[in-house]
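Please, structure for the following, as tokens.
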Amino acid sequence: MKHGIVVADSGPLFSLALISRLDILNALFDEVKIPPAVWNELIFDRSKPDYWQLYNFFNSKVNPVTGVNELAFVMDYGESESVLLYKELNAHFLLIDDRKARKIAESMKVNCIGLIGLLSIAKDKDLIGPLRPVFEKLLQNKRYYSKELLNTILLAHGEATFA
């Protein structure tokens, strides 16, 4: 069973592209949407190795935001547009990793999920193999996640934790 509409911020999308698993989004959700500000962040630098992967996956998933963005003064533009689009579409999830932005979104009754939670769900549904190598690749490529969180997820899936 899929989980409705997800609106995504760029951070988790860069991480999913890094591990070549953008397909997890289509496997878990009926619809994947991003606002224009996130699209601009994804396609800003054509020299990035994951540029075409991101471009091809998201070029048909950009959805305009119609409301006034009053959140831009408390979080970055991509995050704030993501929250607005979530509200406008009455989405089921907001995929976002930034701690400050997530807390603000959750205070507005936005149902947030981060990349690590998403990968845990994908593991539960047998969409992904062992998580530890995935987490190692993320960390080696300067994607910053709490080792405490990673270890909690690894333990829940019966995998070896980080020291």
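The radius of gyration is 15 Å. The chain has a mean pLDDT of 94.
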